Amino acid sequence: PSGRAVQELRDCYSKRPAEVFENMQCRAELMSTSHFHIDPYGNVFTGLCAGIVSGAIDNMHVQKTSRSSPVFFMLHKQGPFGLAQMAAKKHGFQFRGDGYVSKCDLCMDVRRCLNYTGEYQELKPQEMYR
Q1: CA 94, CA 108: separation in Å to the nearest integer?
Q2: What is the pLDDT of residues 3-50, one digit of tens each?
Q3: How does pLDDT run across 53-95, given as a tens digit for each residue?
Q4: 73 alpha carbon, distance to own chain's centre
Q5: Nearest-CA neighbor of 87 among 103, 104, 70?
Q6: Three-state DSSP class for 49?
Q7: Nearest to residue 75, comparing CAs of 104, 99, 97, 96?
Q8: Which residues have CB under 8 Å from 8's CB, separation 6+?
Q9: CB atoms within 10 A of CB 83
Q10: 38 with 57: CB under 8 angstroms?
Q11: pTM, entire model
Q12: Of 36, 39, 67, 40, residue with least CA distance to 49
């Protein structure tokens, strides 16, 4: 499971340590053009990762860089474990002691932490992270 569904289904799956998801990038999920979503605020989400804005209805071809979209860039290059390491170093993120059911479960946990910092404008809508 991915996105917020992971929260509701966590008890249905066995959990594994975060390190199991090391070196699992999210290129395919982030770059997929087989599915997209436009929310009521005009944010565009591509691929299978809810809560990470890839553009806006008035600018659908935003150039992604490590400066403009650090979460997207990190997930694309290093996956959720790399994002978690950055969040731990920069924001004090701590891995859940009981583990994660998928790389998406880990990612959602990290992104929730990052969202609360207010530094990552690509994490939208706010309701996704409450």
Answers
A1: 13
A2: 667 777 888 889 999 999 999 999 888 888 788 888 899 998 887 788
A3: 888 889 877 787 889 899 999 999 999 999 999 999 999 999 9
A4: 10
A5: 70
A6: coil
A7: 104
A8: none
A9: 25
A10: yes
A11: 0.89
A12: 36
